[in-house]
Design brief:
It is a single chain. By secondary structure, this protein is of the alpha/beta class. It has a single domain (12-140, 182-230), classed as 3-Layer(aba) Sandwich (Undecaprenyl pyrophosphate synthetase). Helix content is 43%, strand content 14%. The chain has a 6-stranded parallel β-sheet, sandwiched between helices. Helix 1 crosses helix 2, helix 2 packs parallel to helix 3 (73-96) and helix 3 packs parallel to helix 4 (112-124). The longest helix is centred in the middle third of the chain and has 24 residues, at 73-96. The chain starts with 13 loop residues before the first strand and ends with a helix.
């Protein structure tokens, strides 16, 4: 429960989630994988509400990877329909709660109807500031880095970017959403222990929490447990433990 959190002031500002296990959850119950994805869609709603209640400022969800395009066409088509359904069905509540919707990835690969639904959600919630919900769609971390490098090369050829001026801050400016802060906490559900090409640049110093819970079974208490795990760690960022405890001096 929320009251079990040891320190309300140390809630991670940005939580990113690899929502894994929908298909395996469905297969273990003898139902279609698409029904598993639908159950996972319900969990998105619940976890968003819980995140907002807990005071998380940024929630980024790995909704569809570039690699997912390789899945059977029926499953991909079903996932695209579920994306449209979520954007249309949940938008009123999201907007009413002051949540801003964003999306990152190679969005031009999405079907036209999906692009339109995503663009509508982004535009309608553009001025909201209570919380930011970002969907990683047709997304790959390596692809994001490659796309950033391509844009930098083009600007260098135009003479608007000097190679000697490139540093980490400059590189961040070329990512899909330069305003998105680095995640403090990365959660992966579904018992797998890998980052699966997600936010490779941004998670350099993220705390990683893995859980065996499949995404359709992920509850608010599981989110709270992940935050408790996060709050129990000492984030040193290259410093010694004593430096951190003394305030970074």
């Amino acid at each position: 429960m929320e009251e079990s959190l040891p320190n309300r002031d140390r809630i991670p500002a940005h939580v990113a989630i690899i929502m894994d296990g929908n298909g395996r959850w469905a297969e273990s119950r003898g139902i279609s994988r698409l029904r598993g994805h639908r159950a996972g869609l319900q969990r998105v709603r619940d976890v968003l509400r819980a995140s907002n209640d807990l005071g998380i400022q940024y929630l980024t969800l790995y909704a569809f990877s570039l690699e997912n395009w390789n899945r059977p066409k029926t499953e991909v088509d079903g996932l695209m329909s579920l994306l449209i359904e979520y954007m249309e069905r949940e938008l009123n509540e999201v907007d009413r709660n002051g949540i801003r919707v964003r999306a990152i990835g190679r969005l031009d690969r999405l079907p036209g109807r999906v692009q339109k639904a995503v663009e509508n959600a982004i535009e309608r919630t553009r001025e909201n500031s209570e919380m930011t919900l970002t969907f990683a769609l047709s997304y790959g971390g390596r692809a994001e880095i490659v796309d950033a490098a391509r844009k930098m090369v083009l600007d260098a050829e135009r003479g608007t970017l000097l190679p000697k001026s490139i540093d980490e801050k400059t590189f961040r400016d070329y990512l899909y959403d330069p305003t998105l802060p680095d995640p403090d906490l990365l959660i992966r559900t579904g018992a797998e222990v890998r980052v699966s090409n997600f936010l490779l640049w941004q998670i350099a110093y993220a705390e990683i929490h893995n859980t065996n819970v499949m995404w359709p079974d992920f509850q608010k208490q599981n989110l709270v447990d992940a935050i408790l795990d996060y709050q129990g760690r000492e984030r040193r960022f290259g410093m010694t433990g004593s430096q951190v405890r003394e305030g970074g001096s």
